[in-house]
Amino acid sequence: MSELFHVEHFANSAPMRKNGQMRQSHKNPAIGIDFGTTNSSIALAIDNSTIDLVRFPRSGGETESFRSVLYMERIRQAGHLRIGSWTGPTAIEHYLDAEKKGRLIQSLKSYLSSSNLTGTEILGRHFTFEHLIARILTDLRLNAERQFGIEIRSATVGRPVRFVGAENETDDDFAQSRLARAFHSAGYEHVDFCMEPVAAAYAYEATLDHDELILIGDFGGGTSDFSLLRVGPGIRQRGRRNDDLLGNAGLGLAGDAFDARIVRKLVSPALGAGTLLHPASKMLPAVPAWIYANLERWHYLSFLRTRNVTEILKSARARAVEPDKIEALITLVDEDLGFQLHQAVQHLKYELSSAETAQFRFNDGSLELRQTVTRADFESWIADDLFAIENCIEGLFKTVNSSDVDRVFLTGGTSFVPAVRAIFERRFGAERVRSGNEFTSVARGLALRAAESAA
Asked: Which of 102, 262, 330, 369 has its CA 20 to 30 A from that of 395?
């Protein structure tokens, strides 16, 4: 790794030392790591109820959620060109500040199950996905070591019930093995995996003074996962049994899929999707559909900055019925505004979580998009996804009645979406549905799981 990556910025993430030595206040620290498609977090369990979360530096303060992104660009050091790399909030800042953009890479976790995708070429060099993920995991570890003042070589790590793109158990096993290799490359000597919704159950269990049968819904950027299990102080005291976990279910869609629907239904039409070439009677689209498909995952936008795409768009602008829309698309691609577009989509989704109507606003210099969106519009765009989530949950209740569930605990950013919460409130009643620590509950639970395993 040291030959491939510029790591000068690690100086700000070096482990704290006391009297010249790293403190060893925790010989076997109970570390939980939630490496997510969109965000990651890392926690240390001090005891059965006290959790310390890593706070990552960012412009204007600190955050407990570390963006799972990697930014790479060419830099000149000692007269030689090298590839510089940054992760998390720092990666976003470097990307936004760069006049000549490098490569901003997101959602690496989504590729783990694909045996056909072993790596990619970046700035003239080939990198395996495991190495790219390890680069992010290394900074997670170094930030944790700095804050906690301990050496971290083992962790309990979350994994989805079903990895994105996995069609069977073999695909899931393959994805987990790749993730394990990435952790080992990042300096972790021992890794235990735990289903992410089960980890969230540990976090919820820490708040209980009685036993419950609970349904956990964990909604990440790439996956939605569910577990039905018994938890509580009585369960811990007698010792956990395999039959405490009544079932797991999951599917490879969540927040990223909702974002893609917004882009497809709202943004792409404003940028010329569906507009025709002259003469209109030929009914030919001005721009190929695959270009708009790349808009739906914002980090793919940089892939469109090629000579071939530029020629396609300029030709389409010259012959299109609505050339202004194609011009707006050209601006988006040329100025590489994918991240800014993603932020606007996220803001719209956030506003629609608390209001029936919201304004989609995207204004970045020469490009401005503005449109009113109702919650009903948004819910119609994600109707198929909501149906898939509901069907996935149904699979857990073949031997258990919904009425037997004491509580439903929802976590993850997509749990804020009212239509998602409504799925559970219709079935279980609003009084049984709870949520909390939406972005860090999995890491908290993983740390508690690690502490229990070490006891």
From this structure: 262
Q: What is the pLDDT of residue 15?
A: 38
Residue 454 is inside which H or E element, if any?
Answer: helix 441-454
Pairwise CA distance, residues 443 & 257, whole Å? 23
The residues near 118 (Cβ < 8 Å, ≥ 6 apart) are 128, 129
Note whether 394 and 410 are within 8 A (CB): no
In angstroms, the CA 364 to CA 344 distance is 11
For residue 380, the surrounding DSSP H or E stretch is helix 375-381
3-state class (DSSP) for residue 231: strand
Q: Can you read off the two tokens belonging to residue 344?
A: 């606007």
Q: What is the pLDDT of residues 398-450, one digit of tens each?
A: 889 999 999 999 998 899 999 999 999 999 999 999 998 888 999 999 999 99
Give pTM, 2 decimals: 0.86
Measured CA distances, 141 to 122, 144, 148, 293 (Å) = 24, 5, 10, 35
Highest mean pLDDT among 74-78, 103-107, 256-260, 297-301: 256-260
Rounded to an integer, the average pLDDT of 144-150 is: 95
CB atoms within 10 A of CB 357: 12
What is the Cα–Cα distance from 247 to 252, expressed in whole angstroms? 17
- Least Cα distance to 42 among 107, 111, 138, 131 occurs for 138
Nearest-CA neighbor of 140 among 63, 82, 61?
Answer: 63
CA distances from 407 to 24, 219, 228, 422, 448 (A): 40, 17, 10, 15, 20
CA atoms of 384 and 402, how far apart (whole Å)? 23
Cα–Cα distance measured from residue 136 to residue 129, given in angstroms and rounded to the nearest whole number: 11
Per-residue tokens: 151:
């050496």
**Is the pLDDT at 7 greater than 50, yes or no?**
no
Q: How far is CA 61 from the centre of its chain?
A: 21
Q: In this structure, are strands 190-195 and 212-219 parallel, antiparallel, or unpaired?
A: unpaired
Return the SS3 of 354.
coil
Question: CB–CB of 313/330 below 8 Å?
Answer: yes
The torsion of the CA quartet 313, 318, 320, 323, rounded to 10 degrees, works out to 80
